[in-house]
Amino acid sequence: MSPHVTDRYCVFGNPVAHSKSPFIHAAFAAQTDEQIEYTAIAAPLDNFAGAWREFVAQGGRGANVTIPFKEEAFRLCDTISSRARRAGAVNTLLLGKNGLTYGDTTDGIGLVRDLARQGVKLTGARILVLGAGGAVRGVLEPLLAETPASLHIANRTAEKAARLARDFADLGAITGGGFKDVTGGFDLVINGTSASLSGELPPLPDGLFATDATAYDMMYGAEPTVFLCWAGARGARPLDGLGMLVEQAAESFFQWRGKRPDTAAVMATLRESL
Ligand code: NDP
């Protein structure tokens, strides 16, 4: 009888000790009866590719990739999904049977699935996205695929938002600019800036939200972010990014194991642990 070999997965980051991915994937594996080991690995800042090769040599089959390695992961892949190519970043690595490395990004589909699960309608919606960094670039293609009426990107550095809008202009009605040009009447406002990390609020006008609007912060924590408090006080429904985190993990898990876990149960446990 051949010895039982457990497939190995991990999340690469630096720092990575805070990552919730090992907990999430252990829960997915238990639920779906998959025998996997999933750990957090702090890759050296100057040798991400080496850390991936070493992991593969030790039986690694796939990995999640988080800050600051998403662009480096993109560069080391042999083949890449079209959505990851658009995003210019990879958060999911998969070792093919041929030994080649395949890369994808599941952040955007994670956001769209979480919004759908929470009953937020994207088709025909007027959407405002705040920020123009890596996280925002990664969610634009899946958001535009839902055919919103319009999608405007506002960023502290206006030119970055305008450039992003140009890069995605072939996919839908998308515009970009600075915070001072933001008008109002949005059905969904997604905060993809890292302002919440430092408890800051981008400068936004009072009439930002339409009736029955949703405010979504990609950040999450035990307490609502400054942005969600501000939005809630103006009548919008506040949602944080915990669901996005779990849904992107579920899509990675599906790519590795071919099974879709029950995200709601894992989300509830995670929420209690915050
Ligand atoms: P980046 O560093 O690539 O981009 C940061 C963005 O935030 C830029 O647009 C920057 O503007 C803007 N910004 C930073 N500080 C401020 C401020 N004080 N006021 C206004 N704007 C500000 O970061 P990421 O795109 O990788 O991440 C953004 C957020 O998304 C983080 O909070 C991260 O935790 C979250 N995230 C959540 C995920 C989830 O699964 N829930 C997944 C991925 C990310 P400028 O261009 O002018 O510098």
TrEMBL record:
Gene3D superfamilies according to UniProt: Leucine Dehydrogenase, chain A, domain 1 (3.40.50.10860), NAD(P)-binding Rossmann-like Domain (3.40.50.720)
GO CC list: cytosol
Quinate/shikimate 5-dehydrogenase/glutamyl-tRNA reductase domain ranges (all copies): 115-196
Presence of keyword Methyltransferase: no
UniProt keyword terms in alphabetical order: Amino-acid biosynthesis, Aromatic amino acid biosynthesis, NADP, Oxidoreductase
Active site: K70
Metabolic or biological pathway: Metabolic intermediate biosynthesis; chorismate biosynthesis; chorismate from D-erythrose 4-phosphate and phosphoenolpyruvate: step 4/7
Subunit structure, interactors included: Homodimer.
Protein name as catalogued: Shikimate dehydrogenase (NADP(+))
